[in-house]
Automatic annotation (TrEMBL):
Superkingdom of the organism of origin: Eukaryota
GO annotation, biological process: transmembrane transport
Organism: Oryzias melastigma
Metal-binding listed as a keyword: yes
GO (cellular component) term, any one: mitochondrial inner membrane
Protein name: Calcium-binding mitochondrial carrier protein SCaMC-3-like
Solcar repeats: 195-281, 291-376, 387-475
Listed Basic and acidic residues bias regions: 13-25
Record-stated family: Belongs to the mitochondrial carrier (TC 2.A.29) family.
Pfam families linked: EF-hand_7, Mito_carr
Gene Ontology molecular function terms on file: calcium ion binding
Length: 485
């Protein structure tokens, strides 16, 4: 066992309730079966099990796995004997896990034992994170977990080892909203070698593609408002859509979406690769050290900057194609050719500086708000190991919104600079002079022009992204319960 940290309370349980006899325990399980069997037909189907376990924060995939594991006669439901046998078998697995964690064989698990055990299987967490896992199961406030607490907590959770528990608790749900994704997911060495990582990234890219396509009309309206300002593009969201429909019809609402989706795959791959490299540099010789939140933030920012630098010309093309009038460009290649011929290579990096500057406030606030909300929920809901999908999705939506509010003025200036068509060799307006012009002509509110459609798309973007993300992971054989970060 590793050295005990001085800040961790070392109190042990003085009086434990005697363990229930097998007869009492199975009587209680029989009562559970009776309660879950809503139609009293002697069987529990998936819908009844979901209803019975609704308060435990389990995903649909977890409940399905319980039925699959217990359904020995393959009839799609659990009868009484199958239900009881599943609980007996699962309890045996939980006992093995408990004994593996209880290194000093005192019948209790403390935070340092959780940390050491996870370290031995390649999952590195801090003592503070191990304590949070402990607190989620510690019902009597002793800062330790006894067998009864352990068994009762995981009895209906199909996780089979502590590595699963750690990933389950640590996983995040920072889904694509069409803006800058911040810090990539964390993966173990085992996951990297098994191909899990690329299946996970592929699921994220697919989810992002559908999400961006579904919210493309709102994104196009945002870009119009950012570029044209209050003088040229007045009215509310509805009048903005009417303007775009009059100019180009229904299909015009998706202008620029093709390149927006096309750049997602390479951006995700480059960001993940760069993130792993930067993490290695930060860790130095201690490759097993867990990165702290501010170190992950730095690594995420540097990875984001690397990815943005590589794919930035596609960002410029996306803006130009989004703003184009009917017949202006025949496609992506024609747009790139015209920009190159008229404005030169430098045009593909217009707005690059404000774009790089916007990464820091967006990533910093997004990550900080996300972690704060998740930990606040865990601290208020002790006894629940995992926040659950909807809590994580909600945290992601709120944190993304806060990140957008902080970085929006820089994003607006970047978009206006990208949209400026100029003659090759002509002087370009600088970021500071553009900022001065916006404040002088439109006031501070001008820096937030177009933010309403941008905020309107957060909820549908996150919802679409999650639904596609979950089903794509299932198709690729990446269970939703296999954690990430």
């Amino acid at each position: 066992m590793g050295p005990q940290q001085t800040w961790l309370p070392g109190a042990r349980c003085q009086e434990r309730a005697p363990p229930k006899s097998d007869q009492d325990k199975e009587k209680r399980w029989a009562e559970m079966f009776e309660l879950m069997d809503l139609n009293k037909d002697g069987h529990i189907d998936v819908l009844e099990l979901r209803a019975g376990l609704a308060g435990r924060g389990l995903s649909r995939a977890s409940v399905d796995r319980i039925v699959q594991a217990g359904d020995t006669n393959q009839d799609g439901v659990l009868d009484f004997e199958e239900f009881i046998q599943y609980l007996r078998n699962h309890e045996k697995q939980l006992k093995v896990m408990f004994r593996r964690l209880d290194r000093n064989n005192d019948g209790q698990i403390d935070a340092s034992e959780i940390q050491d055990c996870l370290h031995s299987i390649g999952v590195n967490i801090s003592l503070e994170e191990a304590t949070r896992i402990l607190l989620s199961m510690d019902k009597d406030g002793t800062m330790t977990i006894d067998w009864n607490e352990w068994r009762d907590h995981f009895l209906f959770n199909p996780l089979t080892n502590m590595e699963d528990v750690a990933r389950h608790w640590k996983r995040s749900m920072m889904l694509d909203t069409g803006e800058q994704l911040t810090v990539p997911d964390e993966f173990t060495e085992e996951e990297k070698k098994s191909g899990f990582v690329w299946r996970q990234l592929m699921a994220g890219a697919m989810a992002g593609s559908v999400s961006r396509t579904g919210t493309a009309p709102l994104d196009r309206l945002k870009v119009f408002r950012q570029v044209h300002g209050s003088s040229d593009f007045r009215g509310n969201v509805l009048s903005g859509f009417k303007h775009m429909l009059r100019e180009g019809g229904v299909r015009s609402l998706w202008r620029g979406n093709g390149v927006n989706v096309l750049k997602l795959g390479p951006e995700t791959a480059i960001k993940f690769t760069a993130y792993e490299k930067v993490k290695s540099l930060i860790r130095g010789h201690d490759e097993t050290r867990t990165l702290r939140v501010h170190e992950r933030f730095v690594a995420g920012c540097m990875a984001g900057a690397t990815a943005q630098t590589t794919i930035y010309p596609m960002e410029v093309l996306k803006t130009r194609l989004t703003l184009r009038k009917t017949g202006q460009y025949s496609g992506l290649a024609d747009c790139a050719t015209q920009i190159l011929r008229r404005e030169g290579v430098g045009a593909f990096y217009k707005g690059y500086i404000p774009n790089m500057l916007s990464i820091v406030p967006y990533a910093g606030i997004d990550l900080a708000v996300y972690e704060t909300l998740k930990f606040a929920w865990l601290n208020r809901n002790r006894g629940v190991a995992d926040p659950g999908v909807m809590v994580l999705v909600g945290c992601g939506a709120v944190s993304s919104t806060c990140g957008q509010l902080a970085s929006y003025p820089l994003a607006l200036i970047r978009t206006r600079m990208q949209a400026q068509a100029s003659v090759k060799g002509a002087p370009r307006i600088s970021m500071l002079s553009l900022l001065h012009n916006i404040i002088t002509q439109e006031g501070i509110a001008g820096l937030y022009r177009g933010i309403s459609p941008n905020l309107l798309k957060v909820v549908p973007a996150v919802s679409l992204s999650y639904v596609v993300y979950e089903y794509t992971r299932m198709m690729l054989g990446v269970d939703i319960e296999e954690g990430s970060r």
